[in-house]
C-alpha cells in the first residue's frame, strides 16, 4: 500500500475515533496525514468510502489480534486468557471505536450498519470455529453466546467510561483499573470453562420462567 494511502488511513482512524464521523472533514484528514486533499479523493471516492474502509480495517485488525493470541497453543484456558488479554489491549489502543460503532448501530448513521455487520460476522464465525468442541453447537451454551458475553464484558467498560467514572474515582481508564478489569475477565473465563467442563446439558439451563 502506498505510503500516502497508509498516512490517510491512519489519520482517518485517529480523527474519526477521537471526534466521530460528522465532526471530521476530508480536509481535516488530509491535513493530519500531511497530504493534499486531492490525494484523499484519488484513493477514496468519498468521505463515506474512507470511513467504511477504516471501519472494516478496525474489525480486521480486531480479528487478527484475537487469532494471534489464540495461536499460542496450550490449554483452552491458557489460550482464552491470552485472547482476553489481546482483546483488552486492542480496545485500550482503539478505545474510542467501540463507542463509535455503538453510535452507528443506534443513531442516524445506520447507513453504515451493513459495514459493521460485514466486519463483525467474521469475528463471530472465528469464535465458533475456535471453540468447536468446547461449547455447544447451539443453545444458551453456544459459542455465539460466549462471544456476546465476552465482547460485551470487554467493550462495556470503554463505551460507558464517562458513566462509570464515579464508580472508579473518576479514573476508569487508569492502568490499574484496566488491570483489575482484565483480572475479572480472566476469572469469568475460568468460571464459564469450569461449567462447560462439568458437562451439564443445555437442557438443564432454564430458558423461561416455565422451565424453572
Count every helix, treating DSSP H or I runs of 4 or more residues as helices. 10
Looking at the overall shape, the CATH architecture of the largest domain is Orthogonal Bundle
Helix content: 55-70%
Strand fraction equals under 5%
The biggest beta sheet reads: none
SS-based class: mainly alpha
Taken from the alpha-carbon principal axes, the silhouette is globular
Kindly state the number of beta strands. 0
Task: For the record, give the distance between the C-alpha atoms at the N and C termini, rounded to a whole number.
Answer: 57 Å
Description:
- The structure is a single chain.
- The chain is built from 10 helices and no strands.
- It is globular.
- The chain has 2 domains: 1-44, Homeodomain-like (Arc Repressor Mutant, subunit A), CATH 1.10.10; 46-200, Tetracycline Repressor, domain 2 (Orthogonal Bundle).
- The protein is an all-alpha fold and 212 residues long.
- Mean pLDDT is 87; it is low at 201-212.
Key descriptive features of the protein:
single chain, about 210 residues, mainly alpha, Arc Repressor Mutant, subunit A, Tetracycline Repressor, domain 2, 2 domains, about 70% helix
Task: Compose a concise summary of this entry.
The chain has 212 residues and is an all-alpha fold. It has 10 helices and no strands.
Layout of helices and strands:
Layout (H helix, E strand, L loop, with lengths): L2 H17 L6 H8 L3 H7 L3 H24 L5 H18 L2 H11 L6 H18 L12 H17 L1 H4 L10 H23 L15
Helix pairs in contact: 1-2, 1-4, 4-5, 4-7, 5-8, 5-10, 7-8
